[in-house]
Design brief:
The complex is a heterodimer of chains A (350) and B (322).
Chain A: H1 2-10, H2 13-30, H3 32-35, E1 55-58, E2 61-71, E3 76-86, E4 88-98, E5 102-110, H4 129-165, H5 167-182, H6 185-196, H7 205-233, H8 236-243, H9 248-256, H10 261-284, H11 296-302, H12 306-310, H13 318-341
Antiparallel strand pairs in A: 1-2, 2-3, 4-5
Chain B: H1 2-29, H2 35-40, H3 46-56, H4 62-74, H5 88-123, H6 128-142, H7 145-159, H8 177-215, H9 218-225, H10 230-247, H11 250-268, H12 273-282, H13 286-314, H14 316-321
Helix pairs in contact in B: 1-13, 5-6, 5-8, 5-11, 5-13, 6-8, 7-8, 7-11, 8-10, 8-11, 9-10, 10-13, 11-12, 11-13, 12-13
The chains are: A alpha+beta (350), B mainly alpha (322).
């Protein structure tokens, strides 16, 4: 059914476009160190709040214009007329480890040393926003995937058991989900963050955030899986399995839960944005990913400076655009998947 | 009706107990003893610390502290804020109205915009209103609230048309009463838009689907056959039934608003409950956190109650069913 699903998904324009977009985004996140011209922690205090460097075509090569600092107090830069330096493709730059393993030095493009290339400008300490955006993508997008995997696992197990066992296990699980859904999520998020921070080493913040978000996010999935299991339980094939004397665990895990799979794929896709937004919100508040790592929420959090608003450093808000783009892509993919999996889920009137 | 309200309020108690117990347990798991920095502060009277320690059992295990805290809450003693150096009840009484005001305004904005748009969109599925509102809603749902808030502050700073933050101007206290209200309204516009936009989109999507569902009912055909103008059919007969499922979800919408306002308040420097909770968490101001969480949850349940009442008022089946 997997190949069928993918085929029918790719036949829908929205599905195709969003799938390609997401592949590009995850590809960019995976190869971030190679695609980025520098490393995310490289500072340049002489070039703070540098505007995006313009690219020009000169002498048959793609070149970067050179800039001159006009007024340090308002961070005003001016392009120097007629001066540009060519981009060096596949050249050596700061050392990094691809996939965290393979040591390498080759970057897609860099420029000769005194000049710099800031495709999306620089931040308060002169770090390249484009580079940080790429590195941040790994964390922001990764949390979405890992979080959804954990939640689906939790929701499937708890919802499946609740629906199959019924009785007190069912009511206990359902009261728990109602509680989780009724409490303002961010309040609990803050409390969990405060409680758990000492139990995780500081470089495991990624894991900590995933655990927190999953612990709060499984309720919706569990409720729907329970509902599906409740209705599936009465079907003849489960009756047959019962009569054949199969053990309850076999019935649950071999017959009931696989039948909720198609729903689960749709729900998981549609809930990835929740994790991306959750991580962004936490990091934005300064409670998520910490320096020197970078994430989209953290970058936006650092853009909360009145100087940035007054002097119109718009490029520092690009992580927000990245978040919006990703969320829209996931929503489109989820809707297309839902239509592909089951026409009954389709909204009326479409 | 009174019995109904009382029963709903009864469900408030276990929920508040569960939430506060959870938050209490989580906060006591957090590292560090919050009394140590407090004792180091010179401007807090040691006698006051000793008195509070005794009254709240701060030297006891956390479950005993919780019971004592509960006992004090029943006597309306919410404890003392170490950072603001005032009783917590006073602090919350200052901040909660601002958050309620913001949430209610956003909810009104969401409904006021979403209801007519959704009915118009569903009246002609696939028409230009439908296409426009659907894509706008898609986009609006993808924008994180805090990013929208950042954009709003940026817009305010660039254009100078709106205040950059806060709820009142510096000279607020010296203004005549009418100008004071205008001042607050002027400060409220941007936060309300930011917080309400997601609500507009969400409400629009749900309501549009509901209206389309209801439009297929036989009484709609009957109303049309009777020769009623389409406007009356849509807004009197269809809308009223399509609203019911939405009314029952106002409570959850309110939960989302409280979470959202935490972010929006922090970005836009709005003096509400959300900012209070956040700052208290950062500074480990335990009583403030617990008190605000408790008040936040109470607001939530009251929101749920109002939505239930509205549902009972709008739908006779609910009213007589219980």
């Amino acid at each position: 059914m997997g190949a069928d699903l993918i085929q029918s998904l790719l036949r829908r324009p929205a599905g195709l476009v969003s799938a390609i977009l997401l592949l590009l985004l995850y590809g960019a996140a995976l190869f971030a160190p190679f695609l980025a011209p520098t490393v995310p922690s490289a500072q340049d205090l002489q070039r703070t709040y540098h505007p995006p460097t313009a690219l020009v075509w000169q002498d048959g090569r793609l070149c970067v214009r050179l800039y001159r600092l006009v007024d340090p107090s308002t961070a005003t830069y001016q392009p120097i007329a007629g001066q540009a330096t060519p981009l060096r493709w596949f050249s050596e730059g700061p050392a990094y480890r691809l996939f965290g393993l393979i040591p390498a030095k080759t970057h897609l493009f860099t420029v000769e040393a005194p000049a710099v290339v800031y495709l999306l400008g620089s931040d308060a300490t002169g770090r390249d926003v484009f580079t940080r955006l790429l590195y941040g993508a790994g964390i922001s997008l990764g949390i979405g995937l890992v979080g959804v995997f954990l939640t689906s696992l939790l929701g499937l197990t708890i919802g499946g058991l609740a629906g199959y066992l019924g009785g007190w296990a069912d009511s206990l699980a359902m009261r728990l989900t109602e509680f989780l859904m009724a409490v303002p999520g961010l309040y609990l998020l803050l409390a969990l963050r405060a409680a758990l921070s000492s139990r995780f080493p500081s470089d495991a913040t990624f894991l900590l955030i995933v655990v927190i978000l999953s612990a709060l996010g499984w309720a919706g999935t569990a409720r729907v899986v329970r509902g599906l299991v409740l209705s599936l339980r009465e079907r003849p094939f489960i009756l047959a399995a019962n009569i054949l004397g199969q053990r309850p665990t076999v019935i649950l895990f071999r017959h009931l839960l696989p039948n909720t799979f198609s729903y689960l794929v749709v729900a998981a896709t549609l809930s990835v944005p929740g994790y991306i937004l959750g991580e962004a919100a936490l990091s934005f508040l300064g409670l998520g990913i910490q320096e020197p790592s970078s994430s989209w929420g953290l970058m936006l959090g650092q853009a909360q400076d009145i100087k940035i608003f007054m002097l119109n450093f718009w490029w520092l808000l690009t992580p927000g655009a990245a978040i919006i783009l990703t969320v829209i892509a996931f929503n489109l993919l989820g809707d297309a998947l839902r239509d592909a999996v089951d026409p009954r889920f389709r909204l009326p009137g479409r | 009706m009174t019995a109904f309200i009382l029963r709903r309020l009864g469900t408030l108690v276990p929920m508040l107990l569960a939430v506060t117990l959870l938050v209490f347990a989580l906060m006591s798991l957090a590292p560090g003893d919050f009394l140590t920095p407090v004792k180091a502060q010179r401007d807090i009277n040691p006698a006051l610390i000793a008195e509070l320690s005794k009254s709240f059992g701060l030297d006891r295990p956390w479950y005993e502290q919780y019971l004592r805290w509960l006992g004090n809450i029943l006597r309306l003693d919410f404890g003392y804020s170490w950072t603001y150096k005032v009783p917590v009840a006073e602090l919350i009484a200052q901040r909660a109205p601002a958050t309620i005001l913001l949430s209610v305004c956003s909810l009104l904005l969401a409904w006021g915009l979403a209801i007519p748009l959704a009915v118009l969109a569903a009246a002609r599925p696939g028409g230009w209103i439908d296409k426009l509102t659907s894509s706008a809603a898609y986009f609006a749902l993808a924008i994180p609230e805090f990013f929208l808030a950042l954009l709003a502050v940026w817009f305010a700073a660039q254009s100078g048309w709106f205040p950059i933050g806060g709820l009142t101007s510096l000279d607020h206290d010296f203004l005549p009463f009418g100008a004071q209200i205008l001042d607050i309204a002027w400060h409220l516009i941007l936060p309300t838009l930011v917080l309400g936009l997601g609500g507009v989109a969400g409400t629009l999507r749900v309501l549009r689907a509901n209206v389309l569902d209801v439009l297929r009912a036989e009484y709609v055909t009957a109303a049309r056959a009777k020769g009623l103008p389409e406007k009356v059919v849509l807004f009197r007969h269809v809308l009223r039934n399509a609203l019911n499922p939405l009314l029952s979800t106002v409570g959850y919408a309110f939960a989302g608003l409280l979470s959202g306002s935490l972010l929006v308040e922090n970005v836009m420097n709005y003096p509400g409950l959300g900012r209070l909770v956040y700052e208290a968490f950062i500074r480990e101001d335990q009583f403030v956190v617990l008190g605000s969480v408790m008040v936040g949850c109470t607001l939530l349940v009251i929101g749920n109650l109002i939505s239930d009442l509205a549902l009972a008022w709008s739908d006779p089946r609910v009213r007589y069913g219980r």
